[in-house]
Amino acid sequence: MSAEIWNNAIERMLGRMKDTAGRVGERFPHWANTDTGEWVTTPDGDWTGGYWVGMHWLAHRATGDAKYRRYAEAWVERLRPRIAAQTIFKGFPYYYGGSLGEILAGSETARAGALECARSLVKLYDPSLRLIPLGPQAEEGAHIGATETSIDSLQAAPFLFWAAREAGDAAMRDAAFNHADRVIPLHLRADSSFIQSTSLDARTGELVRHYTHKGYSETSTWGRAQAWGILFSTMSYLQGAPEARWLEAAVRGADWWMAHVPVDKVAHWDFDDPAIPNTERDTAATAIATAALLKLATVAPETKRTVYRAFAEATAEALVTRYLTPTSRDDRRVPGMLTESCFNKRPDARPQDAANNCEFIVAAYYLLESLTVLSGAVDPKAV
Quick check: is 97 in a domain? Predict the structure, then answer.
């Protein structure tokens, strides 16, 4: 596929980043109205702020322009209020905002903040559960109890694996290993789909129930849960330990995704919504899966690597050509917005997350990561 497609899309996204910086001031972009380009923002980044910082680390690597590094280093410092939060999801902002700064730019500022967050995060490890639970301040999770976990929380494993290497901390590595080795099999179902959430017994750590709290129903396959499962199983394998069962989980999840996603490659918000095809797409889940497939294509069994790479390229092309706003006199929207992300359609969604058909900073990050990988600027195994 022509590099011109990827480079043109990157340029559009860099333009939108400049536009966004002018709109949000010192607040973090969360999601935006794609008609107006205006952002709903958060003061401390919530769980998504690191993706805004991470986009600048990617831009710095792709372009070599020092302004992106300067911007990222200033913004990673604004994430500091998240370090004390009692939630596993603080790993998201500090991996994408902090760890990537060290990985892609050798930033000591980013590294120091990420290590401080990792040391705080590992204190939440619960040996009776053999993982880090969501935590009492978990975004969209605090209301469901203290012994809950989710496939989303698997993100903590690659973050802690990175931090353990940087700090030479064997105990942190053990916690990361146990977390991944517990979360992956808890959420991978027999049919190779990933269920989002799990309740555990506080005393024994044994399974109480499975459920989906953001999808169509308690047993449905929420699009983003499937994508997270593929991505973070792969990243745990790459960042942590070459555990064959983690790679197998990623491969099974990827094969399930490719077998169930629509022919045009862009997933609906939940694979089991009975209104399909007349329901929301989710470019966020789709962009996450694209990034996951590009990583998996580097470590999967040889016979599958070209399949995953080709599917990722076709998905990225679908996102770029049909959902990334163009530079055109006939389209008055801001260029470079990835449209049609869907948070969830549940009535108990947080007010700041009650958005569908929007631009989502998480989706934008994963599309930009995928594009910089496809253009050859970024090694998918590194990030």
Answer: yes
Question: What pLDDT does 76 receive?
Answer: 95
| pLDDT value, residue 41 | 95
Furthest-apart CA atoms within the chain: distance in Å: 62
pLDDT at position 300 is 97
pTM value is 0.96
Residue 381 lies in a domain: no
**Selection from 20, 81, 74 nearest residue 46 by Cα:** 81
* Among 149, 151, 118, 158, CA closest to 131: 149
Q: Could you tell me which residues come within 8 angstroms of residue 197 by beta carbon, excluding any fewer than 6 positions away?
A: 144, 148, 149, 150, 151, 210, 211, 212, 213
Give the model's pLDDT for residue 345.
60
158: containing domain = 3-23+39-354
Q: How far apart are CA 333 and CA 128, in angstroms?
A: 51
**Low-confidence residues of the chain: pLDDT under 70:** 1, 140-145, 343-354
Q: Say how many domains are in the chain.
A: 1
Measured CA to CA, the distance from residue 333 to residue 329 in angstroms comes to: 9
Residue 30 lies in a domain: no
Is residue 330 classed as helix, strand or coil in its secondary structure? Answer: coil
Residue with tokens 């359609």: 345
Assign residue 118 the CATH number of its domain.
Answer: 1.50.10.10
User: Half-sphere exposure (CA, 13 Å, Cβ side) for 378?
Assistant: 33
Q: Which two tokens stand for residue 137?
A: 């301040």
